[in-house]
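Reviewers of the previous submission asked for a worked example of the structure-prediction workflow described in the proposal, so we include one complete record here. The input consisted solely of the amino acid sequence. No template or homolog information was supplied to the procedure at any stage.
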Amino acid sequence: MHLLLTYRDQWFGNIRSDVLAGLVVALALIPEAIAFSIIAGVDPKIGLYASFSIAVIVAFTGGRPGMISAATAATAVLMVTLVRDHGLQYLLATTVLAGLLQIAAGLLRLGYVMRFVSRSVMTGFVNALAILIFMAQLPELIGVPWLTYVMVAAGLGIIYLFPFVTKSIPSPLVCIVALTSVTLFFGFDLRTVGDMGDLPSTLPVFLIPDIPLTFETLKIILPYAAAVAAVGLLESLMTASIVDELTDRPSDKNQECIGQGLANTATGFIGGMAGCAMIGQSMINVKSGGRGRLSTFCAGAFLLFMIVVLGDWVKQIPMAALVAIMIMVSIGTFSWSSIKNLKDHPQSSSVVMLATVACVVFTHNLAIGVLAGVLLSGLFFSWKIAQIFRVTSILSDDGRHRSYSVEGQVFFASAAAFTAAFDFREALERVTIDVSRSHIWDISSVAALDMIVLKFRREGAAVDIVGMNEASETIVDKLGIHDKPGALDRLLGH
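From that input alone, the workflow returned the following structure tokens.
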């Protein structure tokens, strides 16, 4: 019952703001969907149908209310080669398979991998997206009439100043209406949405991708589908985490994986391309007051209504209005405090953030940037943990027994220091190794412990290991060889 009430509140708890925010997002989605279709090398209707389908389905099945999902550049760029070499039908089949892989990821609860993404990577991801969003507007600002700059500036003025008049109407929507009205009234010769490509005039229809159902076909589409599924989920889960922070409401990451998969699978059967969550459009939605599932649904529904029914009007919206909105999104998305924090935060955190930004901006691939950031975070963490490690020892009064005490985490990064802390040339009868204040984590640390014990035994000393916790004892019993028959002979053999 509680889940039903929560689900109902996600739909109808913010009706007015969700509807208006969805309208703003729908208007901003049109040129982007067309642009992403061009990137993938397909007809504009492929991206437009995909944006409608994904948004509407994710509204019902997703795990993050208020987040906008549609056709995106991140997935479009992955399918350029596929479309060029094999054609549209293979793209549709890839979209279906990518969706199925995402559903499997959700059922396997892989959404929890987000807990391995550090704050520094998140900040780098956000800043890189802000830069990419701004860079995407540059073609509309270079080599254009001076009037375009005036209109963009006017649009930004409306967006930032209108909230001082009233917040009941989203200022981006007022910007679109005002600039479109001025352009039509004075007959300004400006680039419009219609110049981006033709808008479809019919509803999407169900179709099955026309491809041979053979193993050869699977070999062609599986690599692309896996890449699209991985990048789509990565961007969606990162965006969900950002929207979580903006709205102070948690999301179900595994449900989001399933929702994205269902949306992509269905989209492939109506002639659409794969997509995922969009950080830019999600920011527009949140800043326009959108919080619930209704805003996502309205974005998709209004999009289809406008391109099919109001296409002749939508074509006349000046691109300057949409550029102004995206510049606002870029400015609002960028974490300006992260620049000031560069000198205050740990150097390793700053390096991770900057590396994530650099990789994303230079490759235009969010997955590469985030993967680089996560790997760097892991390396820095391992290095720090390896430093919090020491081995002390006490020699008995008679000089025959030495007790070593190990403190810290013993794993691949500290295994060498662990081995180097012991003196095997000392003439001893007995050695005690106390590991009660340490933990043995992996095969590298087990191998190091084996080597230490066997080297002491080779020199004639009896070795006792004491204080081992249950988890460490389990891995040592499973992988260790120092108590196995013939272990010392194998060491001497080397």
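The chain has 22 helices and six strands. We consider this example representative of the routine output the project will generate in years two and three.
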